[in-house]
Amino acid sequence: MERIKSFKQLVSHLNEMEQRKRVAVISGTDESTLYALHRGLEAGFIDVIFVGQIPDFEKHQEFLPHKANIQQFPMEDEDESAQFAVTLVREGKADFLMKGLVHTDNLLRAVLDKEKGLLPAGNILTLIAVAETAAYDKLLFFSDPAVIPVPTRKQREWQVKYTIDVCNAFGIEEPRISLIHFTEKVSEKFPCSVDYADLSQESREGKWGKAIIDGPLDVRTSVDSEAMEVKGIKSPIAGRADALIFSDLEAANAFYKTLSFFGEAKQACILCGTSCPVVVSSRGDDGESKFYSLAMAAVVGK
Questions:
Q1: Sheet architecture: strand order including 126-132
Q2: Which domains does the chain have, with CATH numbers?
Q3: Which of 193, 241, 253, 261 has the fewest Cβ atoms surrounding its Cβ within 10 A?
Q4: Could you give the C-alpha distances from 281 to 71, 103, 221, in angstroms and in order?
Q5: How high is the pLDDT of residue 261?
Q6: What is the pTM assigned to this prediction?
């Protein structure tokens, strides 16, 4: 598989696959979600299953040419809607989920249900984002701007595993994963840096397979080979990171929103750890971001 370096290339790749993925969207009646779904239908890589609140198709006649690729299951109760959507996935009738106007708490209650949910025992839930910026010549993945406040060592290991899986799905055979701190020095004052040193050593010993993992490193040296050379840092990342693992949610969330507003980056994100991708976009994300999140879920989902 050719490496995917842009969102345009991602959508082209999905078109070439000629395989529609079925997305169960819960109360997808807001304009940005409808924009994303319609664009996905037009691009030909999704079928849409509306669950819960159903759009007024009289006002959204752009969906009429795609009625053969749309199913509807109207429901009033948010918990019932979320549970039904999860059941569709468990029964093999949907490939992944998307959040519309349903409250995140209602959705996650169904997703995380120990008996009827989508999180396999032992897995953790985390969010992986990907950005396309004018300053970098490839997509940049990063975790976790929304779910885990301060990852434990075990949670960080899962974040690394999921990030490798996502990068592989995008055709990156040997992803370079940089473990982000404000300095490249290891200090017990910052427990994450100790975890980073251990993960880097494990990578050198081959524990993580075909992946290059190193840190602590800062963001600039992770993506700028000249900055790494000027600072005299020797790292197999070599200023060409494919993915960044942040120390905590605050740092990752600030990075996500800074890229979006000041960097005008195109971004997408999905929940990982579940048996299928879950698109849970921020309320501030626009229709384009939600569309790219759909495309990300479609390529990552099996």
A1: 70-74, 46-52, 21-26, 96-99, 278-279, 266-272, 126-132, 140-143, 243-245, 176-180, 212-217
A2: 1-119+274-302 (3.40.50.10950), 124-272 (3.40.718.10)
A3: 261
A4: 22, 12, 29
A5: 87
A6: 0.95
